[in-house]
Design brief:
Blueprint: H1 3-21, H2 38-61, H3 65-94, H4 104-129, H5 133-154
Protein name: Superoxide dismutase [Ni]
Keywords: Signal
Signal peptide: 1-27
Length: 158
Amino acid sequence: MRQSTRTLFTALALGAASFSITAPAFAHCEIPCGIYDDEAKFDELDLDVKTIKRSIEGIAESKSMHDTARWVTNKENHAQKIQDAMAVYFLAQRIKVPAADAKAKDIENYATSLKLAHEIIVAAMKTKQTSDQAKADALQAAITAYREHYFALHGHKH
């Protein structure tokens, strides 16, 4: 093999390898860029729930194992997106541990934020385990409750 061909092959192989080992891009933003759009993030969560609900309908309407498998995969992927958004965006970046000298109300709000975030993660998990619309409704209710709590604390400034 000629040197230039070997060099080209090596460069292509290294480029392909670098794409396969890079971490996937998750929720915005794990560096302190200061650009957040909390309303858009909640809209994404709502869209994921709508997709889960439509997938549950698709499972019920499905006439083949192939279609059923595709609907189940779609439902589980969107439930996972919700879990990831709650972990990476809200728990890691938006829910702040109160300072040591925090007021009781700040500690209570922190505890409520954690509780509501956890409820969403568990509700999303339950939509993976079943094709019950009631589980998807419970997930939407949990997201709505957290949205109301979140914006009551932070307003719509982000």
